[in-house]
Amino acid sequence: MTCYDRRDLGLLLLRLGTGGVLAAHGAQKLLGWFGGGGIEGTGKFMESVGYRPGKASATAAGLAEAGGGLLLAMGLATPAAGAAAAGAMAGAAAVHAPNGFFAQTGGYEYAASLGLTSAGLAVTGPGRLSLDHALGHAVNRGWMVPAAFAAAAAATAVVVGARVKRLREEKEGHQEALFEE
Under DSSP, is residue 95 helix (H, G, I), strand (E, B) or coil? Predict the structure, then answer.
């Protein structure tokens, strides 16, 4: 019989908590569950904050959150799951960054916390109470961590960069009044 230690139990709790929250957020985007807008409503929101096309952006964010969250919770393909979730949270943090750090003022605190926890789990690994461990770490090899982060970072940089460029171009086209009347 295998004896699990505090590290395994701690990783299980982190995976279940973080993965569960991410999966719920993804379900809001994809399915409209838990008071979410579904693809239609989330797509409109994504358009309003500069992620276009909105429906495709909503689908990508929803899949990264729901898929990454479920995989993290199960401890399966942990490097890919954590990197995908961290990338999605980087995109969310970009939307909230103008509001400062704290969530109380609409800041990026919450997205940063979920993203950093997801990234930490991807790097640390899922522990022995996981499907990765049960399957002999077939989809949790050491080389997969940098590969997953490189792919997620590249995709996130392209998507967030396009959003920033789009917002800058829209702002440049709008002239504000020089003097108050």
Answer: helix
Whether omega before 53 lies within 30 degrees of 0, making that bond cis, reads: yes
How far apart CA 52 and CA 47 sit, in angstroms, is: 5
Whole-number Å distance between alpha carbons of 167 and 170:
5
Backbone angles phi, psi at 177, to 5 degrees: -65, 140
Q: Is 76 exposed, middle or buried (0-12, 13-18, 19+ CB in 10 A)?
A: buried
3-class SS at 176? coil
Q: C-alpha distances in angstroms, 51 versus 7, 22, 42, 45?
A: 39, 20, 11, 9
Q: What is the pTM of this model?
A: 0.88
Which two structure tokens, joined as six digits, stand for 32? Answer: 């409209």
Residue-wise pLDDT tens digits, 134-145: 999 999 999 999
pLDDT tens digits for range 30-77:
999 999 999 999 999 999 999 999 999 999 999 999 999 999 999 999
Q: How many CA atoms lie within 13 A of 156 on its CB side?
A: 22
| Length of the chain measured in residues | 181
